[in-house]
Structures are given as C-alpha cells and as structure tokens.
Amino acid sequence: MAVLYVVGTPIGNLEDMTLRALRILKEVDLIACEDTRVTKKLLVHYQINKPLVSYHQHSQISKINFLIQELMVGKKVALVTDAGMPGISDPGSLLVKAAVQENIKVEVIPGPSAATAALSVSGLPVDRFLFLGFLPHKKGRETMIKEIIASEQSVIFYESVHRILKTLGQLKQFGLKRQLVVCRELTKKFESIYRGTVEEVLEQLLKDRVKGEFVVIVSNK
Question: Residues 144, 134: contact at Cβ < 8 Å?
Fold first, then answer.
C-alpha cells in the first residue's frame, strides 16, 4: 500500500536517529530529500542504499507531481529534510498537502527538531509559545521584530549565521528588556547556549566565533 512517510532525521548528532526511522528508510522504495548530498551521508553512515530524489524550496510543481504519481502506483516514499522534521520551515508541507488531497496515507516518523530541543533546555516559560520560523530578510522584518517584543507569549525563531548579530541588534534597538536564550549548533560538537538580556547575549556571542545555525527564544516576561 502506498504511504508517504514524513521522517525526522538528526539535527546534528547522527546518534539521534531513531530505530523506527532507520527501519522505514530501509523499507521504502524512494526517498525525497532536501539535498541528496546531505541525505547520502546519513544513508552511508547507516549502510542504507535507496534511490534519492531532490525535493526542496526551488523544486518545480512537476517534482511534486512526480512523487505523487510514484505514490499512486503503490510505492512507499520517505520525505526527509536536511535536519529535523520535514514541513517545519521547509516545503515538505506542500508534498504532504498534495498527498492528502489524493487520499494517500501519510504517516509521521517523529524525530529531532531544533525548535523543541531549544525550548526544552531554555529554562524559560514555554508552556505557551509562538513559533515564527525564519524572520523575513527585508520586507516586514522590523514589523516582526516589534511584534516579538510586544508578544505576551514566549517567542521562538530560527536565524542564520549571516543575520544573528543584526537580529539581536534590532531587538536591542527596539527596546527588548526580557530575557532570551540563543542556542547554536544544537547536538553538534560546538553546541553553545547563551542566556541573559539581549545586551549580555550579544557580548557573549561577540567573544565567540559566530558560526553555525541559531535558535532564538525570547521570554514572555
């Protein structure tokens, strides 16, 4: 029976791969992945040999149609992203939506997520939180920054190495007074967690090499 498996993969440390995810990747007919080079490294590490199809934010609608056609003839397809859970700040949700519209069974194989990993070690009030994914690069960015500062809930978002200092600088500029936590390279060799006011976190970051992917959590009080 055709099934689209949404499979979580490690956000850094390969030991975080679940036994169920490994079994599914061994059983499917095809793996749709964000970057074939990244997924290939994971498969080689676990001695899995399966056909790969690239599926990412720049893929044309024809790629979704191809994958849906493969499912409709009875194939089992695994959807993975470079790190974490597909569909979270990546185009995986479009493929899932297309599968649902065709009444194709969709099954989740849960795994690591940078957002939930950061929330769990933040020590901040996160019983309710607002997840923003990546902030806009240009249009709407300042508006979003002001909304973060005004939010009555804790706010979590992703930021790249190229914009983390700019983002923290803008939070400072627009008057953020609450505590925040910035997580860098979670589960990887150089994992770092910075805590304090925006001024204190900026000072800590400037002392280190600003490198890697970041998750930022702003407390609600």
Answer: no
Q: Report the relative pairing of strands 154-159 and 129-134 from DSSP bridges.
A: parallel
What kind of architecture, by CATH, is found in domain 114-218? 2-Layer Sandwich (3.30)
Domain ranges of the chain: 3-109, 114-218
Q: For residue 136, what is the DSSP state?
A: P
pLDDT at position 61: 84
Please state the three-class secondary structure of 5-27 as a single string.
EEECECCCCHHHCCHHHHHHHHH
CATH architecture for segment(s) 3-109 = 3-Layer(aba) Sandwich (3.40)
How many Cβ atoms sit within 10 Å of the Cβ of residue 130?
15
Tokens matching residue 208: 């280190």
State the pTM of this model: 0.91
Of 31, 94, 84, residue with least CA distance to 58: 94
Q: Which residue is associated with the tokens 């169920």? A: 20
pLDDT at 208 over 90: no
